[in-house]
Amino acid sequence: MSDVKLTSEEQGMLAGAEGPGVKRAMEIVVALARIYGAADLASVAHAQIAGVSYKNVGDAGVEFLNRWADEGAKVRVPTTLNPMGMERGKWQEWGISTDFAVPQLSVIDAFARMGVTPTMSCTPYLYREHTPKRGDVLAWAESSAVAFANSVVGARSNREGGPSAIAAAVTGRTARYGYHLDGNRRATHMVEVRCPVKSVADFGALSYTVGKAVGNGVPWFVDLAAWLPPLPSNGTWGGLAGDRLKTLGAGLAAYGAVALYHVAGYTPEARDLGASLIRPDAQRLIIDSLADAYRVMDADPDLRQIDLVTVGCPHASLTEIAQVADTLAGKRLATRLWVTTGEITRQAAAELGYVQAIEAAGGEVVADTCAVVAPMRMLNVRSMATNAGKMACYAPMHSGVRMRFGDLEQCLEAAVTGEWRAGE
Ligand code: F3S
User: Fold this and answer.
1) Neighbours of 362 (CB within 10 A)
2) Who has greater pLDDT, 424 or 410?
3) What pLDDT, in 10s, does the model give residues 244-265?
């Protein structure tokens, strides 16, 4: 008998009435509810699954996912996938071995058999059919997307793990704890930013400084709205404001473990609830300069030769792809450039001619993957440049590359010349 309050339908799932795949999923959901002291379960509107790249899940993951699919597990809410380790139609051209590609495709097949939509993107909120609404209960396992959904949209998700997001998708339930509860959405830190924050790279540098300081806290940015264009009111998040906020959330989640932040007078809950959202014991943090962050993130000051410039972490919006296409007009690249995005965005960008413009310069708009989850050594990439805070954090760790970090103009300049010359 469960100490977590379950409906009769949930009890049936736990007892195996809907088959072994659903039973396995409900066991995970209930175990998490017990661990975190949840009183009951909440109905989920959407799930986002991470742990999709074979590079991360390995053979054990391939076997686990296929066994679950064989047991008949099927998602019962709209469910999307994070990037995998290669682009669907290009892995052979890239020289990815079948030792990697075959198990990778097996992972995607297992998810497809479960009914998951193979978006292969970390920005489900950029796609109209998957954009959450304020108050929606989500089970998202991509930390950057969790930060965006909680903070910018006002939806509610914990930082799910890969299996727990699948379990939530299969049962349509998640344990009601953490960021699903009002009390845990209150700010633990008040952050005053007293220096300019003008670019996506600056927002990434800010995310480093704040993420390191607050850990898994909830920052309340006192005055950051001054550096943000107005939020769109039509629920499409791909503009300049969304680009800055997605990089901020991604970096806060990567350098700290932030799942939710508020911007005073700007993000939905901060706008509606005001200072009542700040805990009385909130600590104060003052950011005078981003220089220390740039010093750490631009980790390899002697590095000049760049093998790959990568833009689009989290996956690029149409606005970012347009910026790259504009900047590269009439230019020819000396090194590889990846603008990483989801296939849905790439198709939209192709319709507007941006993909062709970037390709004409010698760059690629790459779908389905990114330079963290792809096997970069197999692609002979040993040095990178990026304007994305999370990429600067993860690529050296996960892809073993040397890294330069700077704004978009510096990165594209490096793509044109093949060298990082900024600051000279
Ligand atoms: Fe997305 Fe890859 Fe960055 S999954 S958030 S582009 S590290």
Assistant:
1) 16
2) 410
3) 999 999 999 999 999 999 999 9
Q: How far does residue 370's CA lie from ligand 1's centre (Å)?
A: 6
Q: Are 76 and 172 in contact (CB under 8 A)?
A: yes
Q: How far apart are CA 311 and CA 365, in angstroms?
A: 10
Full-model pTM = 0.96
- Name residue, tokens 């682009």: 87
Beta bridge partners of 198: none
Burial code (b: 16+ CB inside 10 Å, e: under 16) for 297-318 equals bbeeeebeebbbbbbbbbbbbb
Ligand 1 centre from 286 Cα, in Å? 28
Ligand 1 centroid, distance to 313 Cα (angstroms): 5
Pocket test for ligand 1, best of 57, 384, 391 (most atoms within 8 A of CB): 391
Pocket of ligand 1 (CB under 6 A): 82-83, 122, 144, 250, 313-315, 340, 370, 372-373, 390-391, 394
Using left for φ > 0, alpha for ψ between -120 and 50, and beta otherwise, residue 212 falls in alpha
Distance (Å) from CA 312 to ligand 1 centroid: 8
pLDDT digits (tens, 9 = 90+) for 48-59: 999 999 999 999
For residues 139 and 313, give the distance between their C-alpha atoms in angstroms, rounded to a whole number.
Answer: 21
Number of Cβ within 10 Å of residue 296's Cβ equals: 15
Amino acid identity for residue 414 in this structure? A
Q: By the 8 A CB rule, do 173 and 10 touch?
A: yes
Distance 40 CA to ligand 1 centre (A): 32
Ligand 1, atom 6: closest residue by C-alpha: 313
- Strand residues in 10-72 grouped as ranges (E): 41-43, 46-49
Give which of 21, 39, 16, 23 is closest to 175, Cα–Cα: 39
Task: Round to whole Å and give the CA distance between 248 and 268.
Answer: 16
Residue with CA nearest ligand 1 atom 1: 314
Q: Which among 391, 390, 385, 394 has a CA at the least distance from the CA of 415?
A: 385
